[in-house]
């Protein structure tokens, strides 16, 4: 029983769950990507900062060029992986996170 509780505590405190992030439940890599976006780079991937066209129409309708996409590194992935942050505005005023390559998004809200 103690071992299970200890394992749960370790998992809750691990960097991958967003415990140190100002955004609840965000992986550490996403927090790092957000910091790069706010600092305007430099970005590790060539496509970071490219226009996100919202073809899936899951985000609010905005003029072309409003949204930009950034790669959130996935540990162990051989390519860019499925995780992204999409920012809206210049400078960004809203952020969305997807971990399933644009099939779903959640708006990032800072912790209270």
UniProtKB/TrEMBL annotation:
Key words, A-Z: Hydrolase, Nuclease, Signal
Annotated InterPro entries: N1-like, Ribonuclease/ribotoxin
UniProt superkingdom: Bacteria
Signal peptide feature range: 1-19
Any one Pfam family match given in the protein's UniProt record, by short name: Ribonuclease
A GO molecular function held by the record: RNA binding
Annotated protein name in UniProt: Uncharacterized protein
Species: Thauera terpenica 58Eu
């Amino acid at each position: 029983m103690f071992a299970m509780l200890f394992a749960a505590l370790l998992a809750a405190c691990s960097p991958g769950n967003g415990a140190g992030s100002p955004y609840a439940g965000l992986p550490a890599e996403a927090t790092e990507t957000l910091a790069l976006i706010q600092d305007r780079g430099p970005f590790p991937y060539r496509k970071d900062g490219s226009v996100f066209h919202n073809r899936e129409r899951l985000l609010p309708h905005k003029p072309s060029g409003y949204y930009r996409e950034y790669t959130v590194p996935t540990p162990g992935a051989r390519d860019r992986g499925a995780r992204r942050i999409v920012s809206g505005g210049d400078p960004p005023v809203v952020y969305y996170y997807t971990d399933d390559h644009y099939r779903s998004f959640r708006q990032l809200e800072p912790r209270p």
